[in-house]
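Lecture 7 notes: from sequence to structure.

We start with a single chain of 63 residues. Read the sequence below before looking at the structure.
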Amino acid sequence: MSPVKLSLFNSGDDREQESVELDDALVDQLRQVVDAHPDLTMQEALRQGIAHIVENGPTKPGL
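Now the structure, written as tokens:
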């Protein structure tokens, strides 16, 4: 399976579109969490993850 690619862009912004690739293991884990919670969509899971980083900063590598 090829990695999942996310494209980030703001239609009102002149900055270039940014693409990010996620590895298969991370994507599989995310899908399992979303599948295990019927009220959680992939969109909401990604939104919550991004909000968590914005509010709390990144975790240290290896944690």
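Helices lie at 24-36, 42-56. Keep this in mind for problem set 3.
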